[in-house]
Amino acid sequence: MPSSRHAGGLTGHGAAVTRGAVMKSLDRIDEKLLAILQSNNQLTCSEMANRVAISPSSCRRRIEALRRADVIIGDVSIVNPEVLGERLIIIVLVTLERDTPDGHAAFRREMLDLPAVTDCQYVAGHCDYVVRLSLKSIEQYDALSDRVFTANPMVKRVDSLVVMKKIKTPPATNADFTVRSDPD
User: pLDDT tens digits for 76-123?
Assistant: First the structure.
């Protein structure tokens, strides 16, 4: 049964929130808070509240409600890639031999178990998966490719794209909440 969390935000305008599901869309203040949190979640509630023109206590309640509703599911620290040294980023387009639930499940398990896989998406189009790898060298990719893709009878085709230069790196999440300048 839906439960009300606080005045405004997820429960404003008749919205109901249940664990893990938002029954109604977020309001503008929630969206603004999420945009701020995505760019810097180390700000204090006072700093965030000031930016969205609400009280710090209201800001804290809203953020807590967003966490309880699983809108915010985690916090991460983005590590400076220069500290890790040069990394080779390879985007791999994978097409499976047979489109079966068991085949997809086995491939997904393997991707989840590989530390070099930083991102894996099941897609529609000319391939089944887009896999992002972060490696130390092309030799490391060659060995991984032979072991994981070439030797795998479930894999029909592999196309590899070597990233030459990062133009824009996404934050830890892909949610896009544009902070509107007009008042709520």
Answer: 877 776 777 768 999 999 999 988 999 999 999 999 999 999 999 999
Q: Please indicate, yes or no, whether residues 89 and 148 belong to a single structural domain of this protein.
A: yes
- Residues forming beta bridges with residue 120, ordered by sequence position: 131
Spatial separation of the C-alpha atoms in residues 162 and 10, rounded to whole Å: 42
For residue 84, give the H/E element and its range.
helix 81-84
The set of residues, in sequence order, having a beta carbon less than 8 Å from that of 146 and lying 6+ positions away, is none
Q: How many domains does the chain have?
A: 2
Q: Could you tell me the CATH number of the domain that includes residue 35?
A: 1.10.10.10
In a domain, 58, yes or no: yes
CB 134 within 8 A of CB 116: yes
Cβ atoms of residues 66 and 72 within 8 Å:
yes
Asked if 50 contacts 36 with a C-beta cutoff of 8 angstroms, the reply is no
Q: What is the pLDDT of residue 57?
A: 96
Q: Is residue 93 part of a domain?
A: yes
Domain that includes residue 38, residue range: 9-68
pTM: 0.63
| Residue 54 lies inside a defined structural domain of this protein | yes
Query: Among 46, 74, 54, which residue's Cα sits nearest to residue 7?
Result: 54
